[in-house]
Design a protein that fits this description.
Layout: E1 2-5, E2 8-11, H1 12-22, H2 27-47, H3 56-68, H4 73-92, H5 119-127, H6 136-149, H7 153-157, E3 164-165, E4 170-174, E5 180-184, H8 187-202, H9 224-237, H10 246-259, H11 264-271, H12 276-279, H13 281-297
Antiparallel strand pairs: 1-2, 3-4, 4-5
Helix pairs in contact: 1-2, 2-4, 3-4, 5-6, 6-8, 6-10, 10-13
Length: 302
């Protein structure tokens, strides 16, 4: 699909390359921004407006139409970020006289406090795994590593044996944008890895998966969907009623670190957050727990 601004062609492919190569955004973010911008450019085309000729009112009208169609506040914020990225791209390419986004505000979002598990709940989930079953040690190991290292699901399923350094007690993780980080790993997780490796190495291993730690029954790389299923199954087995996903273990890992006095910069590095602002959410979680405790035991409570 092609569009025009100041007699210069704009292609979504160019914009996508800009997001990937110059902004170094993740594939999921690139896909979301590109889809948002395609809708925006299509709407402008239907009105006969070139992107470079659009003004703040045109952008506001487009966003309002999307909101009327049921766009959430968070998606609205992302949509505006996508359009701003488009105009930054056009400006950098010299295809813009004035940036219409300079006067467009991004809606302020309420701080979303992630759901977390207590240490007791984490232990209950770990202990709920039936180690007599064929996949028991693998599933226990998955849960141990998720919690012990605070990994994203994509990082977990891509974890390689060659990236585990048991003597030094750390693992090497490749996160968003293939950025590398070093994460400490505790003895419970290392012990779970040792037990699982004995079973894993004795089973079938598909070509190309020789160095992948977590394998399915056929010896291939484990899928994201399977990890979600394993977590849901063990949460139910532990009798926990919270809405728990693999990411909940990451949130719990970070929250427990902050509660125990870990430096926020260290937590940021361990989680692979680009900005310290992202990590600061866990200080809000800790504060919320403190507020709840004060309110519960305050002497004036009736």
């Amino acid at each position: 699909m092609r569009y025009y601004a100041d007699n210069h062609e704009i292609t979504l492919l160019e914009f996508k390359d800009y997001l990937k190569l110059e902004r170094s955004l993740s594939p999921n973010t690139v896909a979301a921004y590109t889809a948002d911008v395609e809708r925006y450019l299509t709407a402008l085309k239907e009105l006969g407006i070139a992107p470079a000729d659009a003004g703040p009112d045109d952008i506001a009208r487009f966003v309002e139409e999307r909101v009327a169609a049921g766009l959430t506040k968070r998606s609205q914020a992302r949509l505006i970020s996508s359009i701003k990225a488009l105009y930054r791209f056009l400006d950098a390419e010299g295809r813009l006289r004035d940036n219409p986004c300079d006067r467009v505000a991004t809606p302020k979002l309420n701080v979303h406090l992630p759901s977390v598990l207590s240490v007791e709940e984490v232990l209950a989930i770990l202990n709920s795994v039936d180690l007599s079953q064929p996949e028991g040690h693998r599933n226990r190991c998955i849960l141990e590593v998720l919690y012990s290292c605070g990994l994203r699901v994509s990082e977990l399923i891509s974890l390689k044996i060659s990236d585990i350094f048991p003597d030094e007690q750390f693992i090497r993780v490749f996160g968003k944008g293939s950025k590398q980080r070093i994460v400490p790993v505790g003895e419970p997780a290392l012990k779970a890895i040792r037990f699982y490796r004995e079973i894993r190495d004795a089973g079938p291993i598909q070509r190309g998966a020789e160095d992948i730690l977590f394998l399915n029954r056929r010896g291939g790389k484990l899928s994201r969907e399977m990890v979600f299923h394993i977590v849901k199954e063990q949460v139910a087995a532990a009798g926990i009623r919270k809405n728990v996903s693999p990411h909940t273990f990451r949130h719990s890992f970070a929250t427990h670190l902050v509660e125990n006095g870990a430096d926020l910069r260290v937590v940021q590095q361990m989680l692979g957050h680009e900005s310290i602002l992202t990590t600061e959410i866990y200080t809000h979680v800790d504060t919320k727990k403190w507020q709840d405790t004060i309110l519960k035991f305050h002497p004036t409570r009736t």
